[in-house]
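Structure ticket #2291
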Amino acid sequence: MIAEVIVDVMSSSVDRVFDYNVPSDMKIESGDRVLVSFAGRCIEGFVINTKKDASCDKTKLKDITKKLDAQPMLTKTMLRLCFFMKQKFYLRLIDTIRLCIPPLVRNGKIKAKTQDFLSLKLKDIDETEFSRSKKQLEVIRYLKEKPEEKKDVLSKLFGASAIKSLVKKGFLVLTTKEVDLKPIEAKLTIPKKNIVLNVQQQKAVDMISNSKYNSFLLHGVTGSGKTEVYIEVIRRALESGKTAIMLVPEISLTPQMFSRFKNAFGDNVAILHSGLSPREKFDEWNRLKTKQARIAIGARSCIFAPLTDVGVIVVDEEHDSSYYSESNPRFHTHEVARYLAYLNDCPIIFGSATPSIESYNYAKTGEYKLVQLTNRANNKELPAIEIVDMLGELYEGNSGVFSNRLLSALKECIDNKKQAMLFINRRGFSSFLMCRECGYVPKCEDCDVSLVYHKEDEMLKCHYCNRRYRVPEVCPKCKSKSIRYGAVGTQRVVEELKKIFDVPVFRLDNDTTQNKNSYINILEEFNNTSPAILVGTQMIAKGHDFNNVTLVGIINADMSLHFSDYKAVEKTFQLITQVSGRAGRSDSEGRVILQTYYPKHYVYRCATNYDYGTFFKKELNLREVSHFPPFAEILRILVVGEEEQKVMDALKSIYDKTKELQQQYSSDFVYLGAMKCPKKRLQKNYRYQVLMRIHKKNEDKIVSKIYEICDNIKKNKVSVFVELDPQNLS
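Resolution: structure written out below.
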């Protein structure tokens, strides 16, 4: 028998199958991980297929050296998914396979995690023997009450020397045990609620659960109980012997969702996301593969969970741009999830209070089935949104961060022992420093971006490559001491609040969540503190459910409105609606204060009325007139490299070939252009792009020809990436 093997080497030149002979005493099937001899080395590979005959002289074939696992590492379904991604997103096959396998498996570094435990050798020990050693006596008494304890815990409590002496004297027995590493989310609990589904929720569950492969858009207002619908649909899938995948967009949303699912399904739930350590990730992945757990919860990468017989896939907050992978390998989770649902013949749920324009249009045109939850589960009204015109505040002499109305609302909230959340989508103290005399703005040496001032560290930081710089006392260009701050960030908001209010103020952004599990600790502490204020970026905007939050303040609603992005208005509407939904989720009424310099913009009229329907019609009409998605496909070819001239040469070659393609399909091209990226240089790499918009009619044919063009371009020290429907064009 012959095995078609793809070797685990990240090189386009070897991203194809190679034939190997299967020894007569070895049983091989598709999905097996094997060791093979390749280019003078013994390396890992994956069996893609088996066949009777080779495509070359069989006598010249090498034997497979070793089969590495008792069972195939990849199911036939996952192999089909990998081939789909290779074709759809212009990826190397080995890159798609690597998404499905934890690094510890591929590197062969799986070792059992062990811990040392100590117990008393004899129960009846004469305590008078330890009259001269108080610490040793305390250890003996401790272990009389508790049969065994971890060695490191005892050392911490009573000192390492006392433990060492007791072991040496033979009073304690040392036992080494294999243990599972549980992610911290698995240790969190939230109060269990007895939920009774309302009529709308029950109807949604019945419709989805009684379906085979179908895409459902669950459009429910914030607090309408979409999570209860997910749980009940998954419960029914498990009862029929199936498994389930539950996706959330942000790691910070995972703990709360995990706790709710843990309450409902116990140890049947495993968690997968990039914040886990390699060992934790393997342990959770292995629980799913060995069917110890049947529900996978996590962020984008969770779609590659090693589950079979998937009965339902849920994509919560489906509008979120984090479902698009902007680093290699680039892919859109929606497309991958839909194909996986198709392979398993199961329903897929896209849930959101603010669906993307594309998804809602799919629902309107029948490609998705629309399911709506129009009321909050607690039957409370959605929180009232009050608009504050910040230009009016300026005219009245208030040039501060907070409007008078927001300060008054914060005082009332604190007096009532409640909690408030303040949203501003910019971290740091200020977005930049600028010399008032010559206009100089400090920029990163490796990236074409201004540095952000972080007052706590007294540093200027690059938010793209994490380089740090000292804050200049004088302008490096003109030596002036007249330096002003740019736009406000989360640090500045927290500092101002602490000057005004004597209550705990928490901050949740990328800077405060650098350490493992720090986001969980911040959310837990805030949840247990009243009165308190939580300041954060979009990490606080969605998914969180705090019973005591009655006030939400949006510091600068215009921040996302002026991005050079066709989705800028849509993202603004989504952020306002999502963050507003954090208020009034329990018995108390909610209130939202929205600060803006453009109060008459239509997005605020729609958002304050929670009028998604009117917003959708307005935005869809603008997209149709201007030929943007969903009426056209955006395609970006990104060219990256350290030597600018080589990047420009590659860009010109690609653009010239694409121009020829445009002439061939002139009626299908809406736009074609080559340019520098808005952020021209990141992490020492120059970035140029070819952008095009094409009609849907011949999209597949044109995209495949674009792939051919990029494949045939000489890429000396240059990387070329093709992106379908990119979420970030900067």
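Closing remark: The longest helix spans residues 644-664.
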